[in-house]
């Protein structure tokens, strides 16, 4: 892995099954991930709405400058490792 990993942020909310599944699937990766709860962080909620047509669709994931709405773990890992090279 590159010494300087792209920043990865997962925007989530309590009770979201898709969020919990993504977190579980990424837990074994070598990635450093920041998690932001959109119900407790207004800036995070605004960020998600700005990328999901005004909706609070989670998980929304930012890898560097790229943003994905409801991605698979494979999508996140692929983009994260793509940006390592």
Could you list some keywords that capture this structure?
21% strand; single chain; 3 helices; Glutaredoxin; 38% helix; 85 residues; alpha+beta; four-stranded mixed beta sheet; 4 strands
Structure commentary:
There is one protein chain. With 85 residues, the protein is α+β, with helices and mostly antiparallel strands. The chain has one domain: 3-Layer(aba) Sandwich (Glutaredoxin). It contains three helices and four strands. The chain has helices at 17-26, 42-51, 73-84; strands spanning 8-12, 33-37, 60-63, 66-69. Strands 2-1-3-4 form a four-stranded mixed beta sheet, with helices on both faces. Strand 3 (60-63) and strand 4 (66-69) form a beta hairpin. The longest helix is centred in the C-terminal third of the chain and has 12 residues, at 73-84. The chain is globular, with a radius of gyration of 12 Å. The chain starts with 7 loop residues before the first strand and ends with a helix.
């Amino acid at each position: 892995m590159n010494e300087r990993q792209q920043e990865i942020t997962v925007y989530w909310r309590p009770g979201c099954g898709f969020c919990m599944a993504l977190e579980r699937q990424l837990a074994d990766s070598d990635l450093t991930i920041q998690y932001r709860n959109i119900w407790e962080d207004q800036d995070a909620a605004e960020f998600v709405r700005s990328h999901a047509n005004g909706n609070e669709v989670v998980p929304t994931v930012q890898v560097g400058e790229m943003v994905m709405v409801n991605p698979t773990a494979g999508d996140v890992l692929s983009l994260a490792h793509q940006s390592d090279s």
